[in-house]
Batch of 4 targets.
Target 1
Amino acid sequence: VKIIKKIEVIKEEISLLKNQKEVIGLVPTMGYFHEGHLSLIDIARKHTDIVVVSIFVNPTQFAPEEDFDRYPRDIVRDEKLAKEHGTDIIFYPEISEMYPQPFYTYVTTEKLSKVLCGRTRKTHFRGVTTVVAKLFNIVQPDIAFFGQKDAQQSVIIKRMVKDLNFPIDVIVGPTIREKDGLARSSRNIYLSPEERSQASIIYKALTKAKKEVEKGNRNAEEISKLAYQIINSAPLAQIEYVEIIDDTNLKPVKIIKAGTFLAIAVFFGKTRLIDNIYLMKKK
Ligand code: AMP
């Protein structure tokens, strides 16, 4: 695996590969790899000739009071894991490379960035779409890979690709979980042992809600209440939202139908966890 830190260098490399008609895949990440990241690399490996993984803890998607400084980083381990999973290129830029000063231009996906996580993380998705647009322009992938774990992010990226005519296919990989169902996340290491053991309640709520829908209940209010109560039974859980929404416009639905998912954000101590599940899949 080649580690490239400079935009000009990776552009040169990509243009050589494009001349050879190689299909380029991009997996954007903030590093500190877990099975979720690695599963996306595996999916990319299957779909493309050249797998590029970007590792960049993107400052513009963190608010000042958030965890940018203490966000976990381990490039040595990441390099080893990326290599084991068949990554061809790691793009690992410095902040000054991605945001040379002055920097005034941002990409914003209206509406979709204001709901769910966007209600409390007001500039988060603007940071995500801006850095992903930059990565798309730099790496020029044929296919980009994102995780269902961050459902709102995946919806927003797909919207941006359509709206701004990026010639890129977006593939969304399934959420990878721990044995007890907790979605893998770089932030799980922040949890105390007690918080960690209670955090499995999130997946219990998601699966119980889905079961109720499978039994025939289509009433979103009843299902979200059920999920809310289950999570609330964990003493350390502080719920931010439990919402049942449509996967194209992220609007709340009253009646559960194909394309409806349940999304949850909950604090355990200072750690904010998100998760989601499709209540009914699109055919
Ligand atoms: P991050 O490094 O947290 O920005 O995540 C990089 C990519 O990995 C994003 O597309 C995430 O949605 C995806 N991802 C994170 N956690 C998981 C997971 N548990 N399962 C699947 N994909 C994930």
Note: The mean pLDDT is 98.
Target 2
Amino acid sequence: MDTDFDLSSYLISQQLLIEEELDRALVPRYPEKIFESMRYSIFSGGKRLRSTLCLAGCAISGGAQEVAIPTACAVEMLHTATLIHDDLPAMDNDDYRRGKPSNHKVFGEGVAVLTGDALLSYALDFIMVNTKGVPEDRLLRVMQVLIQRVGVAGLVGGQLVDIESEGRSDVDLPTLEYIHTRKTGSLIDAALVTGSILAGADDGTIGCLSQYAQRIGLAFQIVDDLLDVTGTAEILGKTPHKDAVAGKATFPGLLGVEESVLRVHELISEAKRTIAIFGERAVPLLSIAEYIASRTS
Ligand code: GRG
């Protein structure tokens, strides 16, 4: 592995690039309230991990960054839409997100629901209008991946089983994995897969990246559960210990803290092995995998 690679500079540069593009993408217009609300949540912080993964998926597949920028922005819009809906009282009911009042605490529940809907539809339109120099069949495939990962087979399905599982003591490991491979894994997977499709990668490459994504996605969620046990509101930017209070099944709850940490390391090693065949080009994704295991927020 290239030991000169500086992950933190890389993440900051990708974050700045995405934020500039998002700023251009969400120019306020009538009805201003919805743009104000979309911008509030989009620009309230966030690590920009999924958009970075989309650009990295394109790069490792040999594509030029430009072709993936609109999709990377769209993935960030989709992610923000799910956070806004997730924070609603009818869902996970959180007053804080990224250290700031949740969207519905500022704009009210009606506007928050519409803001999620607006970001969802705008994201897909944004890809269609702004992606240049990519054959239509690739673009269609990108749309299909995103629509599937957001819908019943992905985020919606995961969220539904999550809601139904709340307060139940009989939630087992396969159910917990079902929830999180969809709630958290789906969009991480979509980010890498769409980046790779846009680069014109073959099915073998796309499959490898999807395997990597599924492993880091699950590891990301186990770390999230661990942080909920050990983190503070200041560091996390959201309410800690929520899972225990809400009676939610978690990986540390089912496996114990030690076993959960071991599982994270196993998943990260597997993820890294999956992409080792890409040689030097894999360096950013190898580094991101390690970061996921050690992140503190
Ligand atoms: C289709 C709008 C829509 C919703 C689908 C509400 C819902 C159904 C799903 C919720 C999915 C959800 C919020 C999962 C949590 C994923 C997760 C671990 C988020 C935190 O990710 P970070 O830490 O966040 O990358 P930042 O703030 O850094 O962007």
Note: The chain has a mean pLDDT of 94.
Target 3
Amino acid sequence: MADAAASLEALRSRLAVIADLSQALALMRWDQSTMMPRGGAAGRAGALSSLERLRHERLVDPALADLVAELEGASLGGDDAALVRETRRDVERAAKQPADLVARRARASSLGREAWQQARADADFALFAPHLREHVELAREMAAALDGEAEPYDVLHDGYERGSTAAAVEATFAPLRASLVELVGAIRESGGTCDTSPVLQSFDEAGQERFALEVATLFGYDLHRGRLDRTVHPFASRIGRGDVRITTRYDPHDLRNAIFAIWHEAGHGMYEQGLPDAYAGTPLGTYASLGVHESQSRLWENLVGRSLAFWEWGFERLRAVFPGQLDDVPVERFHAAVNAVTPSFIRVEADEVTYHLHVMARFELEQGLIDGSLDVDDLPAAWNERYEAYLGVTPPDDRVGCLQDVHWSEGGIGYFPTYTLGTLLSVQLWEAMQRDLGDLDEALRRGEFGGISSWLHDRIHSQGRRFTPAELVERATGGPLACDPFLRYAWAKYGALYGF
Ligand code: ZN
């Protein structure tokens, strides 16, 4: 048997080539969403498709599988064993998917995104419908290839949230939904209002960017290894080691959208920047799951960015960026303005309470698309019905209705539940952090974020994919994922804001 160290080295150099192809793919996708002229769409779709095919070929190369098998017999320990285990998982997953399907999905994803962007701009669902139909078919095909026995939606969802199923999601969502509907009712009946006028003035975009980005760097997002650009739908993207980019969009008449999106994406960016360098370019050097990813973004966006203690520090800085515009606004009123609960159309701009009702609507709709109970052509009507039922609002057009999110346009079906799972985890992490670090409000009031970011780095970021999401949650918080911490937090916070 060959020397295990040499085989490990050979494994890592094969994985490095795969990671380099992933880097090229990520850069091309980032570019398509930020810089690429629209005329480049067809060419880009072809290039992405070819590159995905090459990456897939590398992953299913029998020489890689042989190395994995050999190293499994070498009784490695610690991280090396984890590296082999996680590589096995990626190789097996790739091997189940025909190369042609991988290539078709990459092409459809790129073309679908372009069509969606146009459809969204024109509020014309018909432009996007054929692409969504193709995505649904490809998603079913992929689910069948990965596991012909399981429910297709479960297989798709597991690709984003390892170990989770629709039934597990629903078991979490059911009590959450009941309590949130009650909370929305309590807020409505309280008769209280949070005046949003302070944040609905005209704010120049350069000032918004300067303020939000400076704060993001104080949180710990490293601009030496990152950058911020504009896009249609905010996202964060790891291009490669030392290059993790974030994006946002600006609303010149609503201060909330860009700054919370920037902090949200910076939370994702810090996770990616904090992944273990020693395992960069290997499966072990990637994130645990999208739910865990979302816990990082939502924690900075909400637990920090929407807290009174944070604004007791940050408001002076904001005032200095927009002289004269917020001078007469007390910090408590500003805090209330950024926490106003209002059923609305757009998920990414939703308050912390109604946010999950947006997610639940999508969770039900995408299950319907995959199991065939909902036809693509009926999506806009079904969407609007859900919004009326859950939020009491009916989108005036599909632009702010079923065309608002980028995910389905790229074939991302089974992804949405991770937003709520991640939010629940963010509060659970916050509680665990307070047990370890004491009252975090004091630190926030001083603009000290290092304790929070180090805690997250140690327990989450630096762990890479060493543990399954469930194990990681258990280790970081001492228990399984639960909705009680979030509900305690939400009832206390909004009870105080709305006086009940
Ligand atoms: Zn996010």
Note: The CA atoms of residues 76 and 360 lie 43 Å apart.
Target 4
Amino acid sequence: MSMTPRSLTILGATGSVGQSTLDLVRHSNGAFCVAAVTANSSVKKLAAIAREFNARDAVIADASKYEALKSALADTDTNVSAGPEALVEAAQAPSDIVMAAIVGAAGLRPTMAAVRRGATVALANKECLVCAGDLLMEEVKRHGATLLPVDSEHNAIFQVFEAENAKSVSRLVLTASGGPFRNTATEELFSVTPEQAVAHPNWDMGAKISVDSATMMNKGLEVIEAYYLFPVEKNQIDVVVHPQSVIHSMVDYVDGSTLAQLGSPDMRVPIASCLAWPNRMHTPAERLDLQKIARLDFEAPDLVKFRCLKLAMDALQVGGAAPVILNAANEIAVEAFLTKKIGFMDIAETVEQSLTACDMKAPQSLANVFEQDNEARRITHDVIARLRKS
Ligand code: NAD
Ligand code: MG
């Protein structure tokens, strides 16, 4: 099987999804090669990746790290650049697939740039869709881009969603592990530490999404993400807690059939599904052994204990600027929790107060989204300052 390798641009190559993607490239027997890799600030990790995969371009978002990256790669053929504009240029430069795996709204500009060149974009960066779902999906259509969902739930739905029977879909059911605090009493949640919050029972992920899983904001962001990715109404998306993370999500059809995708909780499976789409590729992921797992459990999510999930579902219903504000406030609150400025339960409190304090209309353009995102972050900092005084 000798073919020209398909080239990848990996936005956020040093992160958890980025590393899983690179691991698949390593195992692909030359079916994939690396065109461009980007990172926020870790020069050492990025340089090692660029060197191992002989990348054409390496981009560091933190412009002050340009010289360090340049000298780390001085003896290679890799082009080095730095700063937010360079990130956009990396997304625009030719490659067969763009893996959008930057965390947070910071990934929106480069992801949009990839969409606007009509690229095939494997989208992990869910915050993009939460902030600018309508605008992003319009641009996907306008530029004939292909958007493939990497998030395990959305990838599961994508695999079993019969596009030609979209009208016969009655419901999407997103499964949620329930995170590390599923069985923790609410009173105890006031004193949990960042270390406890990032220790996810099933998945090994970056710090931000791990905290989001612990608050269940992650599932809320995913409900919003699902709304933009699939042609369903807002009230056709449900969440069920499934602690084993074996069923990655389901689609109900009007005839009473429910189609699901199953697999061991390993991000290399949904990532491989995107990289090889519409075909399949081998992965080193553990095979599913249902006899060993023996049982699968399901329960309703607790929307009182996990207020963030409720806030996100409400933000989708309200629409307009609410998802932008929700996302910005959550990013700031999670950062404040990780740096021990606020407690775990203050995350939901901060997001709720920020949503109340921000008065904004639906964003009309990408520039508008960035303005609102900035303004929501400013307001959230004020909310946190007040919370810390009280
Ligand atoms: P991570 O924190 O491990 O990695 C984030 C990457 O983005 C890093 O390469 C980092 O250098 C880069 N980055 C961070 N801030 C940046 C900035 N301001 N500008 C440019 N680059 C920046 O995160 P992750 O767990 O890999 O998650 C990445 C995205 O994928 C998130 O949106 C997350 O919700 C989504 N996702 C992750 C998983 C998972 O298993 N980790 C699963 C589903 C979805
Ligand atoms: Mg997910």
Note: The radius of gyration is 20 Å.
